[in-house]
Amino acid sequence: AVSKDWWRGAVIYQIYPRSYQDSNGDGVGDLLGIVQRLPYIATLGVDAIWISPFFMSPMKDFGYDVSDYCDVDPMFGTLADFDAVVETAHRFGIRVMIDLVLSHTSDQHPWFAESRANRDNAKHDWYVWSDPKPDGTPPNNWLSIFGGSGWQWDARREQYYLHNFLASQPDLNFHNPNVQDALLDVATFWLNRGVDGFRLDTINFYFHDAQLRDNPALPPEERNSTIAPSVNPYNHQKHLYSKNQPENLEFLRRLRAVMEPFGAAAVGEVGDAQFGLEIMGQYTAGDDLMQMCYAFEFLANAKPSAQEFVDVLLKVDDVAADGWACWAFSNHDVQRHASRWELTAAGQRMFATLIMCLRGSVCLYQGEELGLPEADVAFDDLQDPYGIEFWPEFKGRDGCRTPMVWEKSNQYSGFSEAKTWLPVAHEHLQLSVEAQEDDPSALLHHYRKSIHFRQTHDVLAVGEHSDLTASGDVLSFKRTLGGQTIFCAFNISDTPSDLDLPSGSWLPIGAELGSAQISQDGKLHLGPWQVCLALKK
Ligand code: TEU
């Protein structure tokens, strides 16, 4: 094997802690629940876990609104429980990445309480405050992703404060070096506790335009429904000034310098429907910046065609040649891809193998390995404020956040003993871990085999890719590392397809993944949703 940085090409398993495993019978998942399930996670063969926020929080955005960065919310456990997660994970050879939400805090954070008290306290400019326009309206036209103006009036200071998300998630003012220092201290606190890296929430929202210039409108033909629903007016603006500011690079360098002595790695979440890949390129361009950025290209939208895969992968070569992408098909913010792409079991299998053959790192979202469809959550059970705001055009994010299903018969599926914070989806029970462990043909085993295949072929994780081709519904490319070349082809459809192998002689590999045989005439006959993996002789 070639020596490589652990994060490069890694498979990272995302845990949404509220919904993974409840250990204390309150219907909400917690850190000791994760400890309990780490032996299962180890059987998947992943390199790392990324745990969504478990910090002290009023839970208005389910932990993405932090009121104390350096403590665990009692709902999730204690700092000692977190230490147990790290220790147990490390015992299994699994790295731990935590989700730092640095762009904004909760309005219940003591920093905000101090900042809003008056206009001349020590933290008066720790958040983005501004006087109203002469007519009393907000200082500019910036919008919140979760609906309405991005500015909230504060009666005490008689000023507005900026919030790119909920009004209870005020944006920090990164132009103030003291704010940067405080956040770097947070990173150091967790590095000292043994974490191996960070998933950095909304990394491109850290800085705003200091002059508070208006965002221009986005012409309808440039609108893209990626990330947030098209009904959201946020998507009708071009966000030139409310995020994506050049000053961010200098802060990211400071953050990397803090991480460097610990050998920690970061994956930055770039939320931007228009410039996402370009920003990924900028933020991962050098050894003094972020190692990876999380790509939104295959999240939130329709099933990508072979040509779209080619376009995205070529664009990454173009704008992020020195950088590194982290791919995901599902997460806690979007409709699960089994439903979003209307996949059959065979389609899910093909995409599982495909993502393991991409150049970049990979994030899997809990339950993806079971092929869970999006749960149908009734309005009365809805928890997500984003869903409540835009119902029924957009049903929010609860459908991908229902509890993990462990057992096939128990009404709470082994997740909990008590009524759960979101209902366990009845239709998920037949896909539970228990149900799939007993069935050798189940998707869970295919995920394990696909992950194992990637882990035993470094060329797939870190090799160069070339000859990216879309021929009808078939995506193909070569991966090369140190004299080894693997040809990969994927039939992204339920119609059989024939294609010619590239010149040279090829040895079929990956039979355990259902990889196609090569016929005598050198042709490849791909069945519905079939893949072909072949090693150059
Ligand atoms: O998401 C950032 C982001 O861009 C989301 O608003 C995304 O557009 C939306 O959820 C897609 O449906 C991060 C977190 O992943 C999300 O859970 C948080 O709500 C958000 O930041 C605010 O912290």
From TrEMBL:
CDD domains, alphabetized: AmyAc_OligoGlu
Q: Which InterPro entries match?
A: GH (IPR017853), GH13_cat_dom (IPR006047), Glyco_hydro_b (IPR013780), O16G_dom_2 (IPR045857)
> Which BP terms from GO are recorded?
oligosaccharide catabolic process
Which SUPFAM superfamilies does the record associate with it? (Trans)glycosidases, Glycosyl hydrolase domain
One MF annotation (Gene Ontology) recorded for this entry: alpha-amylase activity
Please tell me whether the keyword Hydrolase is annotated for this protein.
yes
Keywords, ordered alphabetically: Glycosidase, Hydrolase
Similarity section: Belongs to the glycosyl hydrolase 13 family.
What protein name does the entry list?
Answer: Alpha-glucosidase
